[in-house]
Please model this.
Amino acid sequence: MQSRKPFYLLVALLFILGIGASVYRGMEHNVPFLPGKQVQSWALDAKVSFVGTGEPAEVSLSLPNDPAFDILTENASSPGYGLSVTDVDGSRRAIWSTRAANGQQDIYYKLTLVPSGKDELIAADTPAQPEPYIWPATEKTAAEQVIEEAWARSAGNLSFARQLMQTLSATNRSQNVELLLSGNSPTKLFVRMLHDKGIAAHEVNGLYLEDQRRRQSLVPLAEVYDKGQWHLFDVVSGKEGRPDSLLLWERDGNSVLDVVGGVNSQVSFSMLKDTRSALATSIDLMKNQDAWDFSLYQLPLEEQSLFKGILLIPVGVLMVVFLRVIIGIKTSGTFMPVLIALAFIQTTLLTGLVGFLLIVAFGLMIRSYLSRLNLLLISRISAVIIVVIGIIGLFTILSYKFGLSEGLTITFFPMIILAWTIERMSILWEEEGAKEVVVQGGGSLLVATLAYLAMSATWVQHWVFNFLGIHLVILALVLLMGQYTGYKLLELKRFKPLAGE
Model:
């Protein structure tokens, strides 16, 4: 007896590959597992203003560098300026230039952001140990006292940073702290004190995102390195950690805005919160990042539309296999119900059922007349096909005349399949009688209806098109059911009398 282990290994492999590929696509490319999911997006406008002096001008603006947000779209509005974007070691800057800038100048940089879910600030490499800050003579003693007091109350780099932040942001600050803050900003003083103890830290600029806010400015924050990660500290407010609404705009220690050929320069921000489709967002991000993605969205729209119908067929096939092999429902033709279910998707269920019954009924009447003519099989089938086309055309014209727009969709029925169904039912009527025709015809409609309900489900259509690995799972289930040789559920009624004895 041949071992079934290779077969079960193949089924398990297909199942694992299908599930794994689908989960990977959902996690890696943020493709939603359920249709209709929405994600939050932010539309930002950065407005650079300065007064030109009539000389050639060059404006350099740092661009967002935050792993917690992905840039969906970005563009600039700067009439009369040339624009280039530089990227040096991950630090991106937009540079506008013109031969002459005179008077008030306004430049806009616009972008759309979506959260990436990557809130942790992982360090690319271990930063070099900073050089201790050389304090001015007037601040040296006060700084050393504040640092030593905080150091004594700490146990590590982060706890030392927390103690320093509490000291600098306290409402009842000591005289030493007041002296130091008179010549330093809280964030810059915080970073210098950390450097004095050899702790890697640097000042960054962030933007708090609030819906429908205008003329907002960047706020200074500090990043402190510890165990492979950067930790955020808002020294002014005395808060540690990253708020959900914070966008880190500049993290490399460079200036946010540089203007040559102008005076009184500043940058302000306006923002607006919105929601958009998670699926569309995922597709746009993959295109922007040139991600390697084996999906049907790379095809032209016409082919995509075609595959949306084709990829539903395996779902219908799975339903047919289950209902015939496990349940035991008889159908007229093996996979004719799948094609009928596809037609139901175009016509809607009620219209499709009525149209199918009318066409088959009229076709059987015509077929009964053709059987008396003793035609050859090929001629008889050809005649039935022509008659089916005529019946569909007649019903379509009548539907249009009576204003029944649903009846116009009856043309989606597969005509060849209908012709063969009429032929098979006619032969079955002659050989087995009307009862068997009703049993197989009714079974076909029942299976087609159940297949339609499965294939028309929104989440099923979403899965089979966006997660191609699910087809491997369907294949594994079909192969597994193909090994079933037990009793069908509908056959168990034959043994019901034995159960009562």
